[in-house]
Design a protein that fits this description.
- By secondary structure, the chain is of the alpha/beta class.
- 48% of the residues lie in helices and 17% in strands.
- The chain has helices spanning 13-23, 34-39, 41-47, 66-78, 93-105, 119-125, 163-180, 182-188, 200-217, 232-241, 251-268, 274-288, 298-306, 335-353, and strands at 7-9, 28-33, 53-57, 86-91, 112-116, 130-135, 138-145, 150-153, 316-323, 326-333.
């Protein structure tokens, strides 16, 4: 099975040109931040013989909010965008999430195409039709589901990334392997150093295939799709906690820590073995050792944890590994169990790296 829109991992810009021509828009807008405007927009504009209206916003998760949306909507109105217009979201996860949200809500919906420029957005954020913004320090708490017209993945954009951004995206690759494909896990375990020169095409394609298969089975996240949130319950809480701090975490960095803690939780629930916990945590730490730190007290994370979108009623619901390559969802967990995993992280891993 597959999602209901084309996802192209290609270096052939004529694929995107044909998709745009089929839509026959009256105007084409390109949403960028200062980074994708500088590094990626020239590549887009030189490969597509089209007239674009650019909308430039400030980069970063701290700007993924309703104020920035109002700036985008205002720019669309001032340029007289219609429901026949098209938005190309050229950037990372923030651009894709917020640009799609603005497109899907402007005049009750105008077409948009996702053109991810970071590894994180290529393998994860641009696929699955989840769109949204942050509010009151909570990740993606306002949003909706809406399909793009297409997703166009041009992997050479990865050459424009800083190493930290590349590593942030790699966390989602790790997640896909752990929740769905043990063979994929064995494949990525052979990677010792992240580099822009890795053959990323097959890795991107495999992660997209995994996510699109899961999304096709459960497009509105009523069941199976929740496994894609492995690492995200704790990860989102940490990302929100550190959002305005000098030592803020990128999304993938927070998810990397979240995956370690949630793997410990699965071990404590006897869903995984101790050797599996060691294997997973050692591999993740080999890439993310510099962000391993003593974590905040549980009461500092409790609001974000309780607001997690997977929760039902009073319980905390987690997606936890049952093996390397498989995952269960709606695993009821209490704060005492979670505290035990946080303590394990602080006592077992932090002394090695902090």
């Amino acid at each position: 099975m597959s999602v209901n829109y084309p996802i192209s991992v290609s270096e052939d810009w004529s694929v995107l040109q044909a998709q745009i021509a089929q839509l026959n828009p009256d105007k084409i807008f390109v949403l960028v931040d200062e980074n994708s405007h500088k590094d990626c927009y020239p590549i887009l504009s030189s490969n597509l013989a089209l007239d674009f209206i650019t909308i430039v916003i400030q980069s970063g998760e701290t700007n993924k909010n309703i104020d920035t949306c109002q700036k985008i909507w205002t720019a669309l109105l001032e340029a007289e965008a219609s429901r026949k217009s098209l938005i190309l979201n050229l950037g990372g996860g923030v651009i894709g999430d917020m640009g799609g949200f603005c497109a899907a809500s402007f005049k009750r919906g105008i077409p948009f195409i996702q053109i991810p420029t970071t590894l994180l957005s290529m393998v994860d954020a641009s696929v699955g039709s989840k769109l949204g913004i942050d509010m009151l320090g909570l990740k993606n708490v306002v949003g909706l589901f809406a399909d793009p017209q297409a997703v166009f993945v041009y992997s050479p954009f990865l050459k424009t990334l800083a190493h930290r951004e590349l590593r942030s995206g790699f966390a989602e690759v790790i997640k896909h392997a752990l929740i769905f494909d043990e063979d994929y896990w064995c494949q990525i375990k052979s990677i010792k150093t992240l580099s822009k020169d890795i053959a990323w095409g097959p890795i991107i394609q495999r992660s997209i295939d995994i996510k699109s298969n899961v999304v096709s089975e459960d497009p509105l996240e009523k069941g199976l799709r929740k496994i894609l949130n492995f690492g995200h319950t704790v990860g989102h809480a940490l990302e929100s906690h550190y959002l305005d701090a000098p030592s803020s975490l990128l999304h993938g960095e927070a998810i990397a820590i979240g995956m370690i803690i949630e793997t410990s939780l699965a071990k404590d629930k006897r869903m995984l073995s101790a050797p599996q916990l060691e294997e997973i945590s050692n591999f993740i730490c080999s890439f993310y050792s510099d962000i391993i730190r003593t974590l905040p007290a549980l009461n500092q994370l409790s609001n974000a944890l309780k607001q997690d979108k997977k929760n039902e009623g009073q319980g905390l619901l987690f997606s936890l590994l049952t093996n390397i390559g498989s995952c269960d969802y709606n695993v009821l967990t209490n704060l005492k169990e979670l505290q035990s995993s946080l303590d394990w992280f602080n006592n077992h891993l932090v002394p090695k790296f902090e």
